[in-house]
Each structure stands twice: as C-alpha cells, then as structure tokens.
UniProtKB/TrEMBL annotation:
<keyword id="KW-0464">Manganese</keyword>
<dbReference type="GO" id="GO:0005634">
    <property type="term" value="C:nucleus"/>
</dbReference>
<dbReference type="GO" id="GO:0000398">
    <property type="term" value="P:mRNA splicing, via spliceosome"/>
</dbReference>
<dbReference type="GO" id="GO:0008419">
    <property type="term" value="F:RNA lariat debranching enzyme activity"/>
</dbReference>
<feature type="compositionally biased region" description="Acidic residues">
    <location>
        <begin position="396"/>
        <end position="405"/>
    </location>
</feature>
<dbReference type="InterPro" id="IPR004843">
    <property type="entry name" value="Calcineurin-like_PHP"/>
</dbReference>
<dbReference type="InterPro" id="IPR029052">
    <property type="entry name" value="Metallo-depent_PP-like"/>
</dbReference>
<dbReference type="GO" id="GO:0046872">
    <property type="term" value="F:metal ion binding"/>
</dbReference>
<feature type="compositionally biased region" description="Basic and acidic residues">
    <location>
        <begin position="386"/>
        <end position="395"/>
    </location>
</feature>
<keyword id="KW-0862">Zinc</keyword>
<keyword id="KW-0539">Nucleus</keyword>
<feature type="compositionally biased region" description="Acidic residues">
    <location>
        <begin position="431"/>
        <end position="442"/>
    </location>
</feature>
<keyword id="KW-0507">mRNA processing</keyword>
<feature type="region of interest" description="Disordered">
    <location>
        <begin position="386"/>
        <end position="536"/>
    </location>
</feature>
<feature type="compositionally biased region" description="Basic and acidic residues">
    <location>
        <begin position="485"/>
        <end position="510"/>
    </location>
</feature>
<dbReference type="Pfam" id="PF00149">
    <property type="entry name" value="Metallophos"/>
</dbReference>
<comment type="similarity">
    <text>Belongs to the lariat debranching enzyme family.</text>
</comment>
Amino acid sequence: MKVAVAGCCHGALDKMYETLELLQRRHNVRLDLLLCCGDFQAVRNEADLRCMAVPAKYRHMQTFYRYYSGEKKAPVLTVFIGGNHEASNHLQELPYGGWVAPNIYYLGYAGVVRFRGVRIGGISGIFKSHDYRKGHFECPPYNQQTIRSAYHVRNIEVFKLKQLKRPIDIFMSHDWPRSIYHYGNKKQLLKMKSFFRQEVESNTLGSPAASELLQHLKPTYWFSAHLHVKFAAFMQHETNSKEELPKATKFLALDKCLPHRDFLQIIDVEHDPNAGDSLEYDAEWIAVLKATNSLVNVTQSTWNMPEKNGLHAKWDYSVTEEAIKEVLEELNHDLKIPCNFTLTAACYDPNKPQKNMEPVHTINPQTTEFCAQFGLTDINDRIQQAKEEGSGRGECEEEEEEEMDSTGSAEEPSEYNTDNSGLSSFNPDEIMLDEEGGDEDLSTCSVDPSPDHPPEFSTSFSDIRIMPDSMAVSSDDAMDSNNEELEKSGGSKQVEEKSPTERSLKRIGGDENGNSGVKKIKRRNYAIYAAEDEDK
C-alpha cells in the first residue's frame, strides 16, 4: 500500500492535503494512509492557541478547525503524533489516543495501531531529562513552565513501548533518535545545518529515549521531523543470538510543510491484502496498557520505572500470548477502532472571534469510553480528583510549578543544558521558521486558499520517492566530513559555549546595526538543542 509521510505541518492541513491530491494526480497513484511526525497543531479555537508554546506572533489559527467543525474532511486517513508546537490542552484530552477530527487520529502520549495489517507505533513530544521521570501532572490553564513540560516525553511511555515483543513495521517520533546521524550522510547534514557540528561530534544531538526505543523495537521504518531538514539513514541492528535474523531500520527525517519544498515522502509498504480498510487497535499494545496501568502517575515527583536491580518485586511487564488472547476475546476479535469523534470545545468562527477565550481542563468522552472498556486509569480524571482533593498532586498552580522546575533537574543531572530562565517571555523551545536557506515564516502557511486565490503549486515539487531505494546510504556518504568543509561552522560552536543569557542574545542578535560578525544562527533548529530548556 502507498503511505505518505509528512514532517511538521504546523496546522497547514489545507496545503498538506492539496499537495497530496496534486501528487496523486501527477503520478497516477492512490494514497492509502498519511502519517505526520508531530507539530500537527490541532488548534480548534483561540483558547487552544493560548496553549501553544510559541510567541504570540506565531499563534495563527491555520486550517485544522475546518476539519474539526466538519466543514472539511481529511481525504485520506491521517495518523499523527504530537511534537513541541501543539495545542497541548486538546491533545491532553486523548492520552491513549483518539480522533481529533473525522479521519484524523492521534496516537496519544505513546501508542500502537494497525492498518491493513501494518503495525504503526509512535511516541509524542520531545525529550528533556529533568522532566523525563515525572508523571503527566500538567493541566490547563498552563503557566510558562507547564505549557512546555506538557509535551515532554515521560519514562512511563518509553517503558510501555519497551514491553512490546512483536515486530513493529513503522515507528514515529518527533525528535530524532540520538546517534542516528552516524548512519547517514553526516557530511551533507552538516553542510546544510553547520550549527549541529558540536552536538554531532559529541553525540548529544537527538533524544536518548528515542535511541533506546530504536535499539529495542528495531522497526522497519522510523520517521521523525522537528529539525526541518530532510535526512535519510540506514541502521543495521546487532543480533542478540545466532538464531535471530538480522534486522535493519530505514530512518527518514522530514522537512516542514511549505509550498515548493520536498516535505512529503511516499513509500510502498507490504500489507495484508485480506485486512480491512479500518484503523484497528493493536492487541499486544492494549494488553501492555492493562499490565502497566498500576504505574500511572500524575504527580510532579520524579520516579523510576521498575527494573531488575533488587528494588522491585516486578520489572518485566511484557505480556503473554494468553493476555493478548484475552484482549481479543474482550473485543470479540473485532479490533476496529470506533469512529466516536466528539466535539469537546467550541470551534473557531472567523466571523465571531473570541480573543479572550480561556482554556479549560476537559475530560474527553473517547478517553472515558476507552478506559472503561479496558479497565484503565483516565489520567485526566485522576488529575481532576487530585485537584479537588487539594492533595497537591497534579496541581497547576504557578508557584508549585516553579518549585518543581527548580528541583526536578537537581535529582537527575541533565544530559543536556537545563533552563534557568524562569518565567521569561523568551521561550527556549521555540523553533523559528524563517531560517536561512529559503524557509518561509510560519505566517506564510496561514493563508487559506479560496476560490479567489487558488493554491499555487510549483513544478519544483519533488517526484514521489519509493523507499528503500531512496534511503540507501553509501559508505562514502556515511563517512565523517572533513574539517576543512566544516570550518565555517566554528562561529556557531562558540555560541553554544556561552552562558544561557549570552546564548539567547547570540541567536537572535548582532551588533548595534543588526549585523553579526558570523553567520547568523536563527532560532529554528539550533534553539532546541542549545538552549537550556531545550526540548529534545
């Protein structure tokens, strides 16, 4: 079957689907599925905009609301994960996944589903070590800490995914697995993004949690986004025994959604021709959720997952074939995910803007139904209970969050720089979308096509590329680039070694005339991995 993969669409759904339609007509193919690797921006209204960790000037409504309201419908089944530019209050309603609009499915904090026999998994958010061991305690209205920590990857999601034993066909993460750049054309990557050099050489670029999952799951395909650059790699995994067959992962990072850019990839994936056309639950994943339900935590305290170290009575939460069989029997062997999308918030009306609309903590009926069906804890209901009981767990008060942020990193020294900027209006997670190399400002994606202004498509759109051929990496490509070719990145390397305040100024400033003595580094990719509160 034909599967399209997109990077950060930043809410520009109209443009993304129009591009898909164009490619289908141009190449005479029919797409079966669209996968999006985060920064989807499922913004329904003005309150959702307030829950996005971006400066006010980037808070554009975009076009998702048209699909949420029913004005439009996604022309192809779309499955996505969350990134670090999301309406976190909306996605938080669906911690186990669910429909955000008809034909558009969110995988949740972490999830696995099946489509035509193809097993698709993913993990939402980006990695940040000093939030990694906390529970999902955040709830709207967010403050300037929780609006970011809400989308940080947590150890419980990684732990759940590591209980899986059956093969995964496709996996998605927003940020890249750490070290993956060593398996592709690193020379070309550093030519395009010279300011990655120090982190690539020190092997600190990317998410260690994602890297851990890559080594454990060994999926056939792994797709990421986040850095707004296209990059392919091929990773041959080590076998654990002589009997185990060799496995390899084809990795691809996608660029962001912009006209005239190669932001889509289409692949041919082997599927079960006898399987139906509906999105389905994955029985093993449901069994793992049930097995790990007792580990659900909604507190701010850091905590460790069970491991074989003599401190835990149980550390293996992988499931037996019998447990999987029980799930199948519970569902009468009907794994079809119900199309139970429900409106849970008012939809944006361009004729009646509600600029003062405030976000509220909502319990989504889809999550209530899912938890009741499988005997799981509704995380949002647990947070609400904690708030009502005044126990301090799951509180969203600013003072407690400030204390949490200052103590969290002390217990577990971060592998990355940590943010001490407090409640600064400067968001260290922000990715500026006007970087060098012709990238356009995000606001250019907010113009909605209309009958008077039809969308323009350039013939510069790349041809459809069928993997794995498109992802082949030669040994020459994979070699480290030489120092001469990378010398020009030295100025940005010095920026990384400055103090937090100096780094922030360096990234956006220059001399008094607005000029810089070195190549200007715009905060689009660099900020994520060099700022203290950077989210990977």
